[in-house]
């Protein structure tokens, strides 16, 4: 794999590794902070354990936290570092929030090569810059060999909500008649990880920040009722969660769910239902019927959104919430909340 | 050990354990969220992956993130769950911020008993309630057996800064003449962990939230120039960090540094310098000379602050920053930034 970096991974020999001393608050940790983190993260408030930021007036903010334990840490189209930025940026974007500040924590396993850490730190900095979020504070812990798995990254973020408070998207805003849209073809991230694990030709993950896509909807007067990035558990989990919260019956047309032929092929071989497979750059939107076509057109102007499509609607109220799909015969089959392991360590 | 809990640890058999399915976004994870997390954390916005909060007007806020990998996870006077609340609350308090919102992420190792997880979740809820911080959002990941160590907890927090922006404490506010105070006797947390690891009679950790102590200073018109909780690396690391940032020479009187006789005894046996040992409920303050006595008196009214004392001062500018201690002979010895491992996995 080749990476084009603003700053090359230099300054460490291949034998330089993370030691327990890097986590113990003394000289080694100070050196790691000043020589690696503070240089890679220009907005880091490295002199304190907390960062401060100003708010200029009243408003609504969003916050989120996510751990990343993906295995392998490099995959086609991304890596644990870029994923850790996109995951949190996207959780904020799903509440209609523009990303502002990111906190980053590393749990490092003793023995991790410092070159590899530096590479991930640089990739993290690049992903944050691209998503327009500032890395302001962090933390580093080291666990003994055998008590971790190289590197786990945890990010938490703060964003400012674009829309008026009464319009903040969420499952409770969903109502009968809403159209359901997916922002692009599904299942790429999960199948990318599985192709890497199984030794197939690697398929590209969809991992990407969604904030610009979301912003463009608000800029063009679309206020989605609810948005959810379809990560672990895939589109099926998202639809079931929302159906349960709002106690509605959701019906989708499986034929309309956009999938790539190559992704579909691998899923069939490995026995996965793509509706259950994780995405890291795709989201599900619930919009008013009259906004549906316009929403799809806006999404389709973005990279990753070319195949955005209306896939179903909220058909009626339902005692516990349910999701079904229309079959070609005109009958309905249930789309269940995924159960069991599905795809472990996908993010 | 006995715990008096608002809610007992029931509903799980001893053989019920965390499985990979609990981390995969499907039915098992939903059940964990609805049956355990949402019940324990009353402010959890469990329906979305991000939480929203309102800000009523202009102001300065603080944010922080910390991972907790302490071993053992239960120690006298605390546990990984309470520590994960105190650590983040204290990082915020050190910037003069009142804690508002907490995000919590769990990295669970496959096989962790669900009873144990529930106990820690309840202890986390109790510590958050006591510190006055609301748990608003979270994340759960599961890693395979042998890739973690039972449980790692990561918290990030948001707080609102008490004081005027120009008075926000930080290392750059320190100046020659400032008095240096510790808020209580030092070294308790590190020695508590070591006593547990070595099989000694357990000594009590100082783990505690510091926000009320800090608030009382501001309420009584004390604006500390700089505050820092003396966690990993202890008081010696804090003093050296600040001396380096501000390029000053700090001199302390080691005789004035408050220590408990039992703590001191264990440190001597194990060969630790208590200035290098972690605290989790003690902080170092830099204040104007005229505020020093009043500050100590306020701190002494708090549990854990009984032995608060002035331990030194900022004596002059210095090219690179240095810390020394006066000896009984009237000479000076260097207090260095701790080097090497010190105490691994102390928090």
Description:
Two copies of one chain form a homodimer. Chain A is an alpha+beta fold. Chain A folds into two domains: 20-165, 60s Ribosomal Protein L30, Chain: A (2-Layer Sandwich); 169-334, Phosphoribosyl-aminoimidazole Synthetase, Chain A, domain 2. Helices cover 28% and strands 26% of the residues of chain A. The first copy, chain A, is built from eight helices and 14 strands. In chain A, the strands form three sheets. A seven-stranded mixed beta sheet of chain A has the order 9-11-8-12-10-13-14. Chain A has a four-stranded mixed beta sheet with strand order 2-7-5-6, with helices on one face. A two-stranded antiparallel ribbon of chain A has the order 3-4. In chain A, a hairpin with a 2-residue loop joins strand 3 (74-75) and strand 4 (78-79). The radius of gyration of chain A is 21 Å and the shape is globular. The two termini of chain A are 20 Å apart. At the A-B interface, helix 1, strand 1, strand 2, strand 5 and strand 6 of A face helix 1, strand 1, strand 2, strand 5 and strand 6 of B. Strand 1 (51-55) of chain A pairs antiparallel with strand 2 of chain B, so a sheet runs across the interface.
- Show the largest interface: A-B, 90 and 90 residues
Number of helices, where a helix is a run of at least 4 consecutive DSSP H or I residues of chain A: 8
Strand content of chain A: 25-35%
> How many extended strands of chain A?
14
Which architecture of the largest domain in chain A per CATH? Alpha-Beta Complex
Q: Main β-sheet of chain A, in a few words? A: 7 strands, mixed
Share of helical residues of chain A = 25-40%
CATH-defined topology of the largest domain in chain A: Phosphoribosyl-aminoimidazole Synthetase, Chain A, domain 2
Through-space gap between termini of chain A = 20 Å
CATH superfamily of the largest domain in chain A: PurM-like C-terminal domain
As an assembly, this protein is: homodimer
Gross morphology of chain A is: globular
Order of helices and strands of chain A: HEEEEHEHEEEHHEHEHEHEEE
Helix/strand-derived class of chain A?
Answer: alpha+beta
Rg of chain A, please? 21 Å
Mean pLDDT across residues of chain A: 94
Uncertain segments of chain A: 1-7
Kindly report the spatial arrangement of strands forming the biggest sheet of chain A: 9-11-8-12-10-13-14
**CATH first level of the largest domain in chain A: which class?**
Alpha Beta
């Amino acid at each position: 794999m080749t990476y084009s970096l603003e700053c090359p991974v230099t300054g460490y020999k291949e034998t330089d590794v993370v030691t327990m001393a890097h986590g113990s608050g003394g000289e080694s940790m100070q050196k790691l902070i000043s020589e690696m983190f503070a240089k890679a993260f220009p907005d880091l408030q490295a002199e304190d354990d907390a960062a401060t930021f100003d708010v200029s007036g009243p408003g609504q903010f969003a916050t989120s936290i996510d751990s990343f334990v993906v295995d392998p840490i490099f995959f086609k189209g991304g890596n644990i570092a870029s994923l850790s930025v996109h995951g949190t940026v996207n959780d904020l974007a799903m509440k209609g929030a523009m990303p502002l500040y990111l906190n980053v924590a590393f749990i490092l396993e003793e023995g991790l090569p410092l070159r590899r850490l530096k590479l991930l730190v640089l990739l993290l900095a690049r992903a944050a810059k691209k998503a327009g979020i500032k890395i302001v504070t962090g933390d580093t812990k080291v666990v003994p060999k055998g008590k971790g798995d190289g590197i786990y990254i945890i990010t938490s973020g703060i964003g400012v909500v674009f829309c008026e408070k009464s319009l903040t998207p969420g499952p409770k805003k969903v109502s009968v008649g809403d159209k359901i849209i997916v922002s692009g073809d599904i299942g790429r991230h999960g199948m990318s990880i599985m192709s890497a694990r199984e030794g197939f030709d690697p398929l590209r993950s969809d991992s990407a920040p969604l904030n610009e896509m979301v912003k463009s909807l608000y800029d063009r007067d679309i206020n989605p009722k609810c948005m959810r990035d379809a990560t672990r558990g895939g589109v099926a989990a998202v639809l079931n969660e929302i159906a349960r919260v709002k106690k509605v019956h959701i019906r989708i047309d499986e034929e309309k769910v956009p999938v790539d032929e190559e992704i579909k092929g691998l899923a069939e071989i490995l026995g996965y239902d793509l509706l259950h497979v994780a995405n890291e750059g795709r989201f599900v939107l619930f919009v008013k019927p009259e906004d549906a076509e316009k929403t799809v057109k806006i999404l389709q102007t973005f990279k990753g959104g070319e195949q955005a499509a209306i896939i179903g609607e909220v058909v009626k109220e339902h005692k516990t919430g349910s999701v079904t799909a229309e079959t070609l015969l005109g009958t309905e089959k249930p789309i269940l909340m995924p159960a069991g392991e599905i795809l472990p360590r996908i993010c």
